[in-house]
Design goal:
The structure is a homodimer. By secondary structure, chain A is an alpha/beta fold. The first copy, chain A, is built from 23 helices and 30 strands. Chains A and B meet through helix 5, helix 12, helix 17, helix 18 and helix 22 of A and helix 5, helix 12, helix 17, helix 18 and helix 22 of B. Chains A, B: Keywords: ATP-binding, Ligase, Nucleotide-binding, Tricarboxylic acid cycle. Chains A, B: InterPro entries: ATP-grasp, ATP_grasp_subdomain_1, CoA-bd, Ligase_CoA_dom, NAD(P)-bd_dom_sf, Succ_CoA_lig_flav_dom, Succinyl-CoA_synth-like.
């Protein structure tokens, strides 16, 4: 029934865990008993109330001295279920005498209550001091695996769902970040004059829980609820552990080196085969051929066709096996039912990658068909992109391996989409905004290649400076998080996660599980991995476009310089919304700005130069903003006037920017242009020169700057 | 010290209030004592613990029977401050005997504790049953006046600032909406198997507090904290009342009839004077003249100039007083220092409105100058627009009374801005998007005419269907709220409130005050007034453009029909974000949709018709969506394919829409277009035909539909 204190730890920790699990499994249980769970906590350094069983008054005193006063004493008897009714419970016993008398009293009361009961003894338990009630727990997510959770305890927190998650195991720093990661974080810092709780002790509980669930795969859910967090220390008053003994098949993952080697051949091929190439207009195999040719791809193109000798001027082959040279990637443009056989040939030819445009697999319910091709690919070590995709673009190679229209504006943004429709939106937007792109990739059913493969490729691809991904699910969230964590240290990773709606109440037997909204996990894990999250399709596209244009800021001090006071207010709001820090203007700098602006203008921050000013006022203040070391980023608010028309403004900004660049000064500059339609051309000109500028919006330029900052912070650069 | 129960109410309620205030004022206090505050509560039907003073055991029993068992008894003696130490407190007395003995025991204990003490008697108080702790309070906002507040009690709620506000007084319905208006609303509905609190009783407390503060202007802050809300009833355990006896000057407000009469002459003038008209290019008075003339204004134009006889072909006058006919509005294009004298002449000429373009008043620190012109205007009953504005447009009269460029796309959206820069953004966006506009108005310093004047004008202006306003502050938030509440019943009112950043901790002596973030008040009051709040400049502009285009939905059932599954997911996310209800698809309708889509397409909602479908599939499913009575609004997701190109899609949607319109069926339709750049033209074509369509974004079309719904709900139409 109870844990006997074992100060000598005669049993090794791993043996304890094994014994507990074996017992539970043997008894067909999927949960540990409370005493078992407490033993587990003891082994992992998770503080629980100390307790023991005494069979004599003197033993009770020894135990009490061991656990520390005050103590609680309770009768232990299989027949006595209602201990309080039997007067078998005493609380707050302060010293040895009280414990000694308490033991006798409890035994006597129990005998009187039920003369026939077996009296095993009296449980002596450390009496917990109350504190701030928190919950520490763990769940097992189908995509992310073991997660550790932290939130305040109590019913109100369940109502508010104020809980934060991290991938297990976590470091001390990550655990501490969880304490700040809940809405009610102030509660832990001491309110109404109270003292702060022991952050280190609480972090240690979180770290140890995360280590426990990481090391013991069978633990699928765990609750410490409540944990009493005190000024000094933290103790879990109640522990629940849910087990699952079913074995899991680990996902097949090549090594990172292998991924990069294969992805490089697929994304930057020297030779491409088009399986199902066609000379007939309107066929997918025809579009793919034309896009390869008209896109300007310089490598070998091998059309594969059962009958044709020549397609669009290229020698055709019956099978990839007939092609004399090496092939790096095979693009499939044939119906689903023919894919398996052709893929087998691709494998025999040792082609490392297959781009599967055809639909008709898992997305239409044909799960077996998809499993079949995955098995073939695994056998031959062929990586699969798709099926059910538009293909992909890699502009540095002039490669349009897709049936969509070619895309040729080269640049530094790599984009991917799980959905074909979103892929088309990416292409249309890119063309319309002249967004410089290195790659656009369709992932479709993600039968094999997924976001983490792309991330490892783009990490080492010098043509890519930012990765922007649309995804609906992550087949292996943990692998994605690991890849993102590594890649985002070097290059910004932006993710639009579609399907944010909570999956509804999940069948969970733990509090932690019930609190785990699907999106909250994505939110926390993506942030933990250094990912910049896009909240909308437009955000994804604008971040992809703007982030590579802006230099990385060297500090947090943002200054707004505006001709329109009204824009200044909205730009300030946008700074708050996007987590940017408006610099508190030092008085010397304030004075320096004031020299350039009218007496009724406002220095401070925003610097309001007022509306009727000539170009020189904009120019002088922007120059000052760039020159002064204490300022790290500029937000410009332009107001269309006769005295400083839009294109004049654009030119002067570009001039100052170039002048400073020549002196080695580069800072991110974004701009919001308020005015008549001429501001559209001015914004476009500014963008072309590295100033992220938009007409008719104060929020978008600041959001792009905010995204750059979010990445720079996560990467430790600012 | 204590309130004697007065069941007969010998004193009239108003007399009680007056007596309490007079006493406080006479004693130089700015707060009521706890017993005074409780008397106030008694008068206003706010439940507080009943209590009374007993000087004998029998009197104590009578009192206890009056307040109801159980009771608390406490010694009352000026000399005994530590009542518990004196053993002068008893709690939980359940019957007459216990009270009788309790009285004797307390008196005896007190005598023993301090034989020299004056024993006034024993206070007998109703013992409160605990419940859910909530706070009900009131503050006085400089703009909105008396507000009533509701939130959960306790320290956690202070940390989370989970509190909601309404203008006082509130109706029972509004009070009930406050209970649902906090994040933690679930707490009141009973959690973990607990029972719900008494919503009616709690609403009554809120209603009565709101009535109290409304009727007693001197009460500037009030806290009931905590109020114990139980399954049956609610009682305020503690009451704090803060007073301010300083008199307030009410703001000058003409009657609504007068406002409308004057605003109609100003906005739809038959004759306009331009004070400071000029023939010289580059002068503001020249731009105003040209805009009036070139804009096509058909009324009389009177240039006013000290010397000229004729300006741009119009006879000029030295003063408005020299003009023979009536003048409806005078546009000022002269420096600030000449405004006062010219305004006096405008007043003498009985011109009802002056449009003050000049800057150089309060915005540059010249507060006296502004006060001077306001006084002149008030003397002559002239309404002032500005100063420090670009002027205004009223397109149905071809009137461009501004120095900016003319605007001529007539339509149903009226816009206003407090800032000139934002005004220019409105003009540029409108022109770029071909937004149909009835009016664009600059409000600038708002020395007189403000948003509420405009609202009353636009309410009765048949050329306006939606009002969209940018504002930084509301000089009289209460008047605005009243106007908005009235107008939004007929026409949507959209507001972009700039300056959302909390003003920081305000010096407040109440909990309610400390919890009142400035923006939270705006949020709640704007919603209470039926206003649709825009979160960004783009939202303001897109809502103004889209709301008049969409018919008002007749119910909440929204259906998504999409060619791209990926768009469907993002559109669903956007529905959640914008408070739209995706209809649960009835099985017969599901079957009807399935008839048109491929077997692997998904019916349900979204209806995923899959990407490779011909125009007829879009057409059939959209027709079904419009024809079926149970569906109230459609969201379309288009995916660019060869088989259904963008313009084909646009045409088919317009065709079905027109076909249904001929049958009398009109429902709001919005569309998100994913594809190559041709989708831009398709979106534009759709918009021109009443389908709110956007390329490269899933969120904006749904946000516009959401805005239409928000208004329709507030106006009671859906």
């Amino acid at each position: 029934m109870t844990t006997v204190i074992d100060p000598l730890h005669t049993e090794r920790p791993t043996d304890v865990v094994r014994r507990l699990l074996d017992t539970a499994k043997a008894e067909g249980r999927n949960a540990l008993t409370a005493p078992e769970a407490k033993q587990l906590c003891d082994v992992y350094g998770i503080p629980v109330p100390k307790e023991g069983l005494a069979t004599s008054a003197e033993a009770a005193v020894t135990l009490a001295e061991g656990v520390g006063f005050p103590v609680v004493m309770k009768i232990v008897s299989p027949q006595i279920l209602h201990k309080t009714e039997a007067r078998g419970v005493l609380v707050g016993l302060q010293n040895a005498d009280a414990v000694r008398q308490g033991f006798e009293a409890i035994m006597e009361n129990a005998r009187a209550y039920d003369p026939g009961a077996d009296l095993i003894g009296v449980q002596v338990q450390q009496m917990l001091q109350s504190g701030v009630e928190v919950i520490v727990g763990s769940i097992t997510d189908p995509s992310f695996g073991k997660l550790v959770a932290f939130g305040l305890g109590g019913v109100l927190v369940e109502v508010l769902k104020d809980i934060t998650f991290r991938l297990a195991p976590v470091s001390r720093e990550e655990a501490l970040s969880m304490l700040d990661g809940i809405q009610a974080a102030e509660m832990l810092k001491g309110v109404r004059g109270g003292k702060a709780v022991d952050h280190e002790a609480l972090a240690e509980v979180i770290v140890n829980v995360s280590r426990l669930v990481d090391e013991v795969p069978e633990i699928v859910e765990l609750d410490l609820n409540p944990v009493f967090a005190r000024e000094n220390g933290a103790t879990a008053a109640d522990v629940r552990v849910v087990l699952d003994f079913a074995a899991r098949t680990p996902r097949y993952r090549p090594s990172q080196e292998q991924i990069v080697r294969q992805m490089n051949r697929i994304m930057k091929p020297e030779a491409v085969a088009v399986i199902g190439a066609s000379a007939e207009d309107g066929k997918i195999g025809n579009s793919v051929m034309k896009n390869l040719i008209n896109g300007g791809y310089k490598g070998e193109i091998y059309p594969i066709h059962p009958k044709a000798d020549n397609i669009l001027g290229y020698r055709a082959y019956k099978s990839v096996k007939d092609v004399p040279g090496d092939i790096d990637v095979a693009v499939f443009a044939i119906p689903a039912k023919f894919v398996a056989q052709a893929l087998d040939e691709v494998g025999e030819k040792k082609i490392p990658g297959a781009v599967l445009i055809p639909s008709g697999f898992a997305e239409t319910g044909n799960v077996e068909g998809q499993e079949e091709i995955v098995a073939i690919a695994r056998k031959h070590d062929v990586r699969l992109m798709g099926p059910n995709i538009y293909g992909f673009y890699y502009t540095p190679k002039n490669l349009c391996a897709t049936f969509c229209t070619p895309y040729d504006v080269k640049g530094k943004a790599a984009l991917s989409s799980q959905s074909g429709g979103i892929g088309m939106a990416i292409i249309g937007f890119s063309r319309s905004a002249k967004m410089g792109v290195s790659a656009i990739v369709g992932l479709g059913n993600k039968s094999d290649i997924d976001e983490d493969d792309l991330l490892y490729f783009f990490e080492q691809d010098d043509n890519t400076q930012v990765v922007a991904m649309h995804c609906e699910d992550l087949k292996d969230g943990r692998a994605f998080a690991e890849a993102a964590k590594q890649v985002s240290k070097k290059k910004p990773v932006v993710v639009l996660k579609a399907g944010r709606t909570a999956l509804g109440a999940r069948a969970a037997s733990s509090h932690t599980g019930a609190l785990a909204g699907n999106d909250r996990i994505y939110e926390d894990v993506l942030r933990q991995s250094g990912v910049v999250r896009a909240r909308s399709l437009q955000d994804l596209l604008q971040f992809a476009r703007g982030i590579p244009v802006l230099p990385t800021p060297k500090g947090e001090n943002v200054v707004i310089i505006t001709g329109a006071g009204g824009s200044g207010v909205l730009l300030s709001d946008a700074c708050v919304d996007n987590g940017l820090s408006l610099m508190a203007m030092p008085s010397d700098l304030d004075a320096a700005f004031r020299k350039f602006i009218p007496p009724f203008g406002a220095a401070g921050n925003p610097v309001d130069i007022t509306g009727g000013e000539p170009p020189s006022t904009y120019q002088n203040t922007i120059r000052l903003g760039l020159e002064d070391d204490r300022i790290h980023a500029l937000i410009l608010g332009y107001w269309h006037t006769i005295i400083t028309p839009p294109m004049v403004f654009a030119k002067l900004v570009i001039e100052v920017k170039e002048e400073m660049k020549a002196k080695g000064i580069e800072k991110p500059i974004v701009a919001s242009l308020a005015g008549d339609v001429q501001v559209e051309e001015a914004a476009s000109r500014l963008y072309d020169h590295g100033v992220v500028a938009y007409p008719y919006t104060t929020e978008t330029p600041v959001a792009v700057l905010g995204a750059k900052y979010k990445w720079a912070r996560a990467a430790g650069l600012v």
